[in-house]
Design goal:
Oligomer: heterodimer
Strand content of chain B: 15-25%
Largest sheet of chain B: 8 strands, mixed
Number of helices of chain B: 12
Strand order of the largest sheet of chain B: 2-1-3-4-6-5-8-7
Distance between the termini of chain A: 53 Å
Order of helices and strands of chain B: HHEEHEHHEHEHEHHEHHEH
Structural class of chain B: alpha/beta
């Protein structure tokens, strides 16, 4: 593990693992699945060196359950998987949302549906990340486009999970997960690292789901005398199961809205040449790399293109999408799926008739040339 | 004794949700007696359960408690114990939760020999969902999903976990309450994966459908058909037919998982 601040060749999955450790993660449980396995392998090697724990569980459900158990003892936790494994984890991700247990789930997306394409890139888990588990629930999903961004967003993911007590999903794609790039990582000592809020009251008066004006309840580590109850059932401020309508409504309303006031802090994105653009790309992950190059190609040909790269996918960055699409003549959403992100953009972008998808589902990347060609084709028709 | 146990309960959450005549409260009491008599630090106890009637027990217990997803108690418990090995971790599960949907976790937790105390409340039925057959419903018995008699053979769950690598295995019943307490105490003393099957009764969803009589009659059936392990060894197999063996069934010593992991960490640090 090279921790010196100098240029090194690093893979996306390795950058994710390193960042998790630098952000304080000390527990990994999971089940191997391509193309995420390098994360498990990295953790198996490095966690015990620093007193952390790694366990390869018997299945994906067990991997998700074990990280939640560890999180209850106070550990910062992470697990990694890919499409089908992510599906299997969903019930326990819902449990984490309901019981407000901080955890990070890396989903290195692969082609679906079903077993799909194990080493083929895809970006088809936008909706699974948001709605894979049942019921309404808060969730954060982040998606990096480079190895360095993978490092940066993984640190953010761990911090968000701890601060807001929510499951945070890192939507990598196979390209970014397996890509090797030259990076200079920040000094871990200078990272901003967030720890969950622990109770300030004595054990006898601790009410685990009572909040102050932050909307985020304090969380006691198991084994420190607070003796609290955790359940996936609807529960009151005490953590006791209840079906009383007013109590259920109060807690669920807090749960469903707890991220609302932090929307700005959670919304991460990058823009590239958007100021004077008449044509805007909105995309994420590896496709943002192609779109950025398409911007250059189109500008050389005199078409003012720009790029909005979403790093936060959920909660959906509706304000920035609304703002940036307002005066654009053309909006394109390139993505490696049948149009999952485009559907969200449509909700918030005015002038829906000018919104176009650029989609590819054959296991290959969308090239900058393909994006540029599609734009020219549409522009000619306009 | 009752006073000592009361301190380990969230009495404000009573009455419990279990039906009249249910054996679950008896198992819970035996477990608390064992915890009390073992002198465990109650701040360091975690009780984990899955879903089902038995799995509601942790809600009434004044420790750190988790009522997890269906079948996943052992996965959560594995994470808890591995992350913080100084905790005493108990898993409360039922025959459906522990041996059907959670069966995979059960055999693998036993295989690892991770230091967990598993108490499986066996009432031979899915009680909370209204009486469907479980992997421990005997062949031929009736349930809402086996209206013509259960075709499936049932597990001997004690044999199964022993085969998977458990280092302590015992079986008690809600009739033999002192034995049950002793079994849980032995489970606590064992450093490794300990499994106690507590044969319970479900007069409402199982007994009624199978014409086994009222709760006291079901308890008498347990009394008359349980054979102590010592006596069973001296009995002819045909005399044992239809009966079941109770007591300490198996004990061995094997390296425990979290200790092995601590050893691994020490070994790596020494080498670096």
């Amino acid at each position: 593990m090279n921790r010196e601040r100098k240029a090194q060749l690093l893979q996306g999955n390795q950058a994710c693992s390193l960042a998790a450790i630098d952000a304080g993660v000390r527990f990994y449980a999971g089940y191997p699945i391509t193309p995420s396995t390098e994360i498990a392998e990295f953790m198996a090697e490095h966690l015990p060196r620093i007193g952390g724990k790694f366990i390869q569980m018997e299945d994906e459900l067990g991997g998700m359950g074990a990280v939640l158990g560890a999180a209850l003892t106070g550990a910062k936790v992470i697990t990694a998987t890919s499409g089908p494994g992510f599906s299997l984890k969903q019930e326990n991700i819902g449990f984490a949302a309901m019981a407000e247990i901080p955890c990070v789930i890396v989903n290195v997306q692969r082609m679906g549906p079903s077993t799909g394409g194990p080493t083929s890139p895809a970006q088809g888990d936008i909706m699974q990340a948001r709605w894979g588990t049942h019921g309404d629930h808060p969730i954060i999903a982040l998606s990096p486009a480079s190895v360095l961004e993978t490092y940066e967003l993984t640190v953010k993911a761990v911090n968000f999970a701890e601060k807001f007590r929510v499951p945070v999903i890192i939507l990598l794609d196979e390209v970014v997960g397996h890509m090797r790039e030259k990076v200079v990582l920040p000094d871990p000592a200078e990272l901003e690292v967030v720890d969950r809020k622990r109770p300030a009251v004595l054990p006898g008066s601790y009410r685990p789901y009572e909040t102050d004006d932050t909307g985020i309840p304090a969380m006691a580590d198991f084994g420190t005398g607070y003796r609290w109850h955790v359940t996936g059932l609807t529960h009151n401020e005490e953590g006791a199961p209840t079906g009383q309508a007013d109590s259920v409504e109060r807690q669920l309303t807090r749960l469903f809205t707890k991220l609302d006031r932090y929307e700005e802090e959670i919304t991460l994105y990058k823009t590239f040449k958007t100021a004077d653009a008449s044509c805007l790309f909105i995309t994420f992950g590896c496709t943002a790399r192609s779109a950025a190059e398409a911007v250059n190609i189109l500008r050389e040909e005199g078409l003012k293109a720009g790029l909005l790269q979403l790093q936060t996918i959920w909660p959906f960055p509706r304000k920035v999408v609304k703002e940036l699409t307002r005066d654009k003549e053309l909006v394109f959403v390139p993505e490696l799926n049948w149009g999952q992100l485009r559907g969200e953009v449509e909700k918030y972008a005015p002038g829906k008739e000018k919104l176009y998808g650029i989609n590819k589902i054959n296991g290959e990347l969308i090239t900058p040339q393909e994006i540029a060609a599609r734009v020219k084709e549409v522009a000619k028709a306009c | 004794m009752l006073k000592d146990i009361e301190g380990m309960m969230r009495t404000g959450r009573l009455p419990h949700i279990w039906c009249p005549g249910c054996g679950n409260g008896i198992v819970m009491k035996a477990m608390l007696e064992a915890i009390h008599e073992s002198g465990l630090n109650t701040d360091k106890i975690v009780v984990v359960s899955g879903i089902g009637c038995s799995s509601r027990a942790p809600g009434y217990l004044n420790f750190d408690t988790v009522h997890t997803t269906h079948g996943r108690a052992l996965a959560f418990a594995t994470g808890i114990k591995l992350a913080k090995p100084e905790l005493s971790v108990f898993v409360v599960t039922g025959d459906g939760d522990g041996t059907a949907i959670g069966g995979n976790h059960l055999i693998h937790a036993a295989r690892r020999n991770i230091d967990l105390n598993v108490i499986l409340f066996n009432n031979n039925i899915y009680g909370m969902t209204g009486g469907q057959y479980s992997p421990l419903t005997p062949q031929g018995r009736f349930a809402t999903t086996s209206p013509y008699g259960n075709l499936e053979r049932s597990f001997d769950i004690c044999d199964l976990v022993r085969g998977a690598g458990a280092t302590y295995v015992g079986r008690g019943t809600v009739y033999h309450t002192k034995l049950l307490t002793e079994l849980v105490k032995s489970a606590i003393r064992n450093k490794g994966f300990s499994f106690v099957e507590a044969v319970s009764i479900c007069p409402v969803s199982y007994g009624r459908r199978n014409k086994l009589g009222s709760a006291p009659e079901m308890l008498k059936w347990l009394r008359d058909n349980a054979v102590a392990v010592k006596a069973a060894r001296a009995m002819e197999p045909e005399k044992l037919a239809g009966k079941f063996v109770i007591g300490e069934l198996y004990r061995e010593t094997a390296p425990e998982y979290t200790e092995l992991y601590a050893g691994l960490i020490a070994r790596i640090k020494e080498g670096s």
